[in-house]
Amino acid sequence: MRRKNRPALIAFAMRTLSSIKTLQKILQPLHGRKRIGFVPTMGAFHEGHLALMRQARRECDYVVVSLFVNPLQFGPKEDFAAYPRPITSDRKKAQETGVDLLWTPAAEEMYPSPYRTFIEIEEITRRWEGAVRPGHFRGVATVVAKLFQIVRPDRAYFGQKDYQQTRVIHQMVKDLHFPISIRILSTLREKDGLAMSSRNQRLSPAERAAAPILFRALQKAEALVRKGARESPPLLQEVEALIRSEPLARLDYAALCDPKFLEPLERIQKGAVLLLAVKIGSVRLIDNVLIDI
Amino acid sequence: MRRKNRPALIAFAMRTLSSIKTLQKILQPLHGRKRIGFVPTMGAFHEGHLALMRQARRECDYVVVSLFVNPLQFGPKEDFAAYPRPITSDRKKAQETGVDLLWTPAAEEMYPSPYRTFIEIEEITRRWEGAVRPGHFRGVATVVAKLFQIVRPDRAYFGQKDYQQTRVIHQMVKDLHFPISIRILSTLREKDGLAMSSRNQRLSPAERAAAPILFRALQKAEALVRKGARESPPLLQEVEALIRSEPLARLDYAALCDPKFLEPLERIQKGAVLLLAVKIGSVRLIDNVLIDI
């Protein structure tokens, strides 16, 4: 039943549904018999999402993609209402990518009143995105736990672009004994290096031209490490100076951290992750690079 | 394979093990084929525990009992170290009750360092035991979620004595989509009405003689409601007066609440739960009664 040699663009019948019960009924006979791949998304599919779906398609017998703009992970001042929701083109892209089932749960079914249960991941959520966006990872962990419980996939696919999120998911899966293999795929980039993100479409043309500054800063840090730099402070100063050189950019944070628990490093020893959050105009972008030494 | 007619006291080979992996390996072939019943406990088995096991035995093909004194649900000033751990007699009792597998996980395997993930149930944990024991229900919900994830039972059995706990579990199971039927069994009592509890063995003879005051207070409230009492304040005054009449007893709380969300009621309309927490000497006891009208 593995569709290993399926040509990429042949149209076939993708199911689209929103009911949790119907989804579970469809998946029930597959558990333990077929390998279920799962790609949780908030829609507005770009090549990064499609790469996750393609990888799931290659590795699994049945591919489920969820499309749910999760209100719980947006702060009160964040862009939940403005988050793009191009459902028709999303459906077309998922279908063309060979997805078996596109699941679009309704918020009222995901969080029926009274909803009371939340997953908290400590420590690893305290800094960086967790500090800037209080409650964000609680919302992410809670919805992912729920999606995992409902879909019960064998493998789940996430992009490295949301690096801290991947570490949060890893920790949760381990701590809560989810029998799911978590697959993290490299960040996909535009030709000028800008990491693909659903938020990129909200950049004005001038902002879009300024946005690759994040990637250039990551590249600069990598080059410095290649040349032997090991101390964080001077490295981060160079990164910050480069970001400052772009008038439309405002640095939120740049941090060199241990890649597992995201604690800041004074000195790179075995390897590190460089995390970057930058506001370009009103759009907040994040990016990262894993630095091997 | 249902052992409906198994005589209650025939000895058979009960497995005892602590490894999570070994447990999962044993249960793996049963999922979806046999009905797995699960009784999570902290050991020190009394008739209340055994009643849960017997009910699981009657209703299920395979009965798993976990014995784990969960450090996470004890406060820093509580009785974790002093909690009774009579493992030899527990094993004998479980075996005689027809349990298939007694699982005794180790704390280091349940919470390997670094452990970071916690389940929070809001609102329903705010009052009563939640207020007196901060973090208690977070510990309960977290360990039960973990046990459920590992065992993946079809049915799980809890005693009504820990009433608020049963509501917390219900909420979590619903919110996190656990495909588990939760069975709540009536509180078992000693002849004088004292609710069975592992903590009872820590009562001195004088305290033990005073302890049935909880049950007498619940009975008094029931009698008053039968006679037409509907307003909470006078009802609770009678309960409190009765508790005060016992010199060794110190009331922690007495509350008439709606039975689902445990919000206090000014007036009993459809039914209520009367929750009681009383210190007898240094031992804190809880009890409750569901009042139907």
Provide keyphrases for this structure.
35% helix; 6-stranded parallel beta sheet; 2 domains; homodimer; alpha/beta; Pantoate--beta-alanine Ligase, Chain: A,domain 2; 10 strands; 3-stranded antiparallel beta sheet; 293 residues; Rossmann fold; globular
Description:
2 copies of one chain form a homodimer. The first copy, chain A, has 293 residues and is α/β, with parallel strands linked by helices. The first copy, chain A, folds into 2 domains: 15-185, HUPs (Rossmann fold); 198-292, Pantoate--beta-alanine Ligase, Chain: A,domain 2 (2-Layer Sandwich), CATH 3.30.1300. The first copy, chain A, has 10 helices and 10 strands. Chain A has helices spanning 20-27, 47-59, 87-97, 107-110, 129-132, 136-151, 163-175, 205-210, 213-226, 232-244; strands spanning 15-17, 36-41, 62-67, 101-103, 117-121, 155-159, 181-185, 249-257, 271-280, 283-292. In chain A, the strands form 2 sheets. In chain A, strands 1-4-3-2-6-7 form a 6-stranded parallel β-sheet, sandwiched between helices. In chain A, β3 (62-67), α3 and β4 form a beta-alpha-beta unit. In chain A, 39% of the residues are buried. The model of chain A has no long low-confidence stretch (mean pLDDT 95). Chain A binds chain B through residues 20, 31-32, 114-124, 141, 145-146, 149-150, 171-172, 175-178, 261, and chain B through 20, 31-32, 114-124, 141, 145-146, 149-150, 171-172, 175-178, 261. β5 of chain A pairs antiparallel with β5 (117-121) of chain B, so a sheet runs across the interface.
